[in-house]
């Protein structure tokens, strides 16, 4: 499966996302860290980081999603369950926006390109779902 071409986070970066000058989307970025979560919180966005360091399989990816996103117990650790979780963020609470970030994405993408491509498709569909709602979702792949 070919990996989709993903844009880099535009020059306006995080402030642009929070102000609405950068559209919600799935973006590549150099890195994510605590400062990104602090900026999201300051903008009244809810954010989480999925640590993909040393993740090489779909099973490990799903486990890290469950942990990093603090997914509900009903999360089934498959693509459909991830899609369902990302289109029903009621468990995350009310907010101005949602930000999902990954750390270690390039390593996972290289180790399991098929799963990485499927994850991007799930993320892209979830972003599209939230784009027409009051609280957008953006995914940063770092």
TrEMBL record:
<comment type="similarity">
    <text>Belongs to the barstar family.</text>
</comment>
<feature type="domain" description="Barstar (barnase inhibitor)">
    <location>
        <begin position="49"/>
        <end position="141"/>
    </location>
</feature>
<dbReference type="InterPro" id="IPR035905">
    <property type="entry name" value="Barstar-like_sf"/>
</dbReference>
<dbReference type="InterPro" id="IPR000468">
    <property type="entry name" value="Barstar"/>
</dbReference>
<dbReference type="Pfam" id="PF01337">
    <property type="entry name" value="Barstar"/>
</dbReference>
<protein>
    <recommendedName>
        <fullName>Barstar (barnase inhibitor) domain-containing protein</fullName>
    </recommendedName>
</protein>
């Amino acid at each position: 499966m070919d990996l989709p071409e993903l844009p880099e986070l535009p020059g306006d970066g995080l402030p642009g996302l929070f102000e609405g000058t950068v559209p919600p989307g799935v973006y590549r970025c150099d890195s994510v860290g605590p400062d990104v979560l602090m900026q999201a919180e300051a903008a009244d966005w809810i954010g989480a980081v999925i640590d993909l360091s040393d993740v090489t399989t779909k099973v490990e990816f799903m486990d890290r999603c469950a942990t990093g996103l603090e997914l509900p117990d009903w999360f089934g650790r498959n693509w459909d369950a991830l899609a369902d979780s990302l289109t029903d963020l009621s468990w995350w609470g009310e907010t101005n926006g949602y930000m999902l970030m990954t750390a270690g994405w390039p390593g996972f993408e290289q180790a399991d390109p098929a799963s990485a491509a499927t994850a991007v498709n799930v993320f892209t569909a979830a972003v599209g779902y939230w784009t027409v709602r009051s609280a957008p979702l953006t995914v940063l792949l770092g």
